[in-house]
Amino acid sequence: MAITIKDVAQEAGVSVASVSRALNGHASITDDTRKHILAVVKRMRYMPHVGARSLTTSFTNTIGVLLPDLYGEFFSEMIRGIDGAARRRGLHLMVSSLHGDADEAALAIRAMRGRVDGLLVMSPHVDAAFLSDNLPEDLPIVLMNTAAGGTQYPSISVDNYNGAHAMVAHLVAGGYRRIAFLAGPSGNFEAQERLRGYRAALSELAPGAAEHVYEGDFSEQSGQAVGQALLEMDAGRRPDALFAANDMMAIGALLTLKQGGLRLPQDMALAGFDDIPIARYVSPALTTVRVPIADLGVRALESLVAKIGQPGSVPASAQTLGAELVARASTGESTPT
C-alpha cells in the first residue's frame, strides 16, 4: 500500500498541515521541524503526487530564476547560492537566461506562468513599467541588482557605486593618475552604478585627471579588445591603471597585455570587480572588489520564500549588500584574502 501524507505526519509526530508546509517550503515552519519532517519523508520513501498537490495547494514547489546569462563564474556562484537555499527548503529551480532584449525577457516570464510559485529576476530590461505589463499580479517576485527595486517589489542589490569609488581611491592612493575605466553594457544597472562611482571618485580624489572610459560588455573578449587597443597606444599617453567593471573583462585585458609584453603592475596596474574565484589564481593575482555573490542569491531566495509563504508580509524594500576592496599583486599591494 502506498505511503500517504497522513502516514508521514503520524510517524513524524506532527500535523498533516506541517508536513505539507515542509514539502512546500513555507517560511512559517522552523528549519529544525522541516529537517525532521523531510528526514521522515526520505526514510519512508514518501513520494507526493506533484500534480495533485499543485491542484490542492496551488503550489508547484518550484522557483523561477531569470538571469541575464548562465555563462561564467559570476552566474555559477549566483546559482550555487540560490540552489543551496532552495534545496534546504525542498524546492526546485527552473532557470532561464535572458540573452536578448526586453521581448525575450517577457517571453521567459510568460513561459513560467503557472509553473513556478515565485520569481527571482536579474535583468537589465526590467523596470516598473515592464513588470506591470508582463508580471501576473499574484506572482511573488524578488529583484536582484536591478533599477526597479524598492518601489513596488522587494529587491536585493550590491553597493556597486561605493565599491567602484573605493577602487579608484585605492588606485589614487597608490600614485596612479591616468586611470582608465572599462565599462559594462550601457543599459545594465550594475555597470551604470560602477561607472558612476568611478567618475565621482576620480573627480573628488584626483582633480584635473581626465576620464578615460572604454566600452565593454562584461565579456572576456571585450577585455581582450581593450587590452589590444592599449598596447597600440603610445607609451606616454597610455593609462597607468585600468579598472574594469567586472573581473572577466579584467582577466581578458590581463592576458592580452601580458602577451604584448607589458609588466603588471610595473607598466600598468589592473583591477576588476566581483572577486570571482579565478581572480586570485591569475598571475598577477587580480585586485578587485569582492561581491557576496552566493550570499546575494541566498538572501533573494529567502526573501522570496517569505513572500510566498505569507503574501503581503514582505515590504517592497531595497536591501543593499556591501562590497569589499581586495588588494592583490596586480596593483602592487596585497591584503589577506
From TrEMBL:
Origin: domain of life: Bacteria
Keyword field contains Repressor: yes
Gene3D superfamilies: 3.40.50.2300, lambda repressor-like DNA-binding domains
SUPFAM superfamilies: lambda repressor-like DNA-binding domains (SSF47413), Periplasmic binding protein-like I (SSF53822)
Single GO MF annotation: DNA-binding transcription factor activity
The UniProt record lists the keyword DNA-binding: yes
Segments forming domain HTH lacI-type: 3-57
Keywords in alphabetical order: DNA-binding, Repressor, Transcription, Transcription regulation
Official protein name in the record: Substrate-binding domain-containing protein
Species annotation: Duganella vulcania
Lineage: Bacteria, Pseudomonadati, Pseudomonadota, Betaproteobacteria, Burkholderiales
